[in-house]
Amino acid sequence: MTKQTIERAALIAAGVVIVALTGLAFWLSYAHLAEVARAHGLGHATDRMWAWPATLDAFIVGGELLMLRAGLRGRTDWWAVAITAAGSVGSIVLNVAGVTGTRDAAAVPLLDYVVAAVPPTAALLAFGVLMRQVHGLVADAEPVAVPVVEIERDTPPSPVAVEVSPTPRPELRPAVASSLVICGGHLEIPAVPPRPRLSPDEAREAIEQAWRNGLSIREAARVSTRSASQVQRIYTGLDADRGPRPVPGQLELSTA
Predict the structure, then answer these.
(1) Are the C-beta atoms of residues 119 and 25 closer than 8 Å to each other?
(2) Other C-beta atoms within 10 Å of 87: how many?
(3) How far lies 168's CA from each of 23, 162, 171, 174, in Å?
(4) What is the pLDDT of residues 160-191, one digit of tens each?
(5) d(CA 57, CA 49)
(6) For residues 10 and 4, what is the distance between their CA atoms, to the nearest angstrom?
(7) Which end of the chain is more exposed for a tag (fewer CB within 10 A), N or C?
(8) DSSP states along 23-87
């Protein structure tokens, strides 16, 4: 597994986790705001009760998308920042404020407020991370345009006149062709007749004699009029039966 494959798998896994976290956090925040709306005047209208949280959470989504667009253009959209901040702060405040309900605020445990504040905060952060990943993918995919700078000269270059004196062209003389003389050209070269092919016994004897004389395989093949592969096989058999073949110039000792 290559490094690029591991990075791609990690990016895909992180994207799935971030999308799931964003959806879950928005759903928890949205559902709690709907309960707040039901307890404070919209309990008789179910459709309006579920539509009311969108007036806050939609600001977060819209602001984050506008900030993504501004980031791709390389600038800062302060309106998008303000919209995202207003939606996020309003969602967190209303989620926390809706914890008390009809109870006394002093009797509500602190942990209830923390539980109510976690979903909108997580939704804000998760959606921001998701937009950051999208911005990175889009920015890496687009090639960077390099501006071409044209340099204009204030004054055009003045032409320079240079007088060149004519150079006399040397006269070409024809080369003197000398007659080609070949030594012994009048003599006839006799044809070399091909070497007669030895019989199998004669060839075997010639190869053994060449082995005893320490000739190479190529020389033995020429003397015996046989192929080098055949001489190689006979040499190998002789080496196995009689030991290594003698080296040229080495005296061969024979035991009586």
Answers:
(1) yes
(2) 22
(3) 91, 19, 9, 19
(4) 666 666 666 666 666 665 555 555 555 566 66
(5) 14
(6) 10
(7) C
(8) HHHHHHHHHHHHHHHIIIIITT-HHHHHHTTHHHHHHHHHHHHHHHHHHHTTS--HHHHHHHHHH
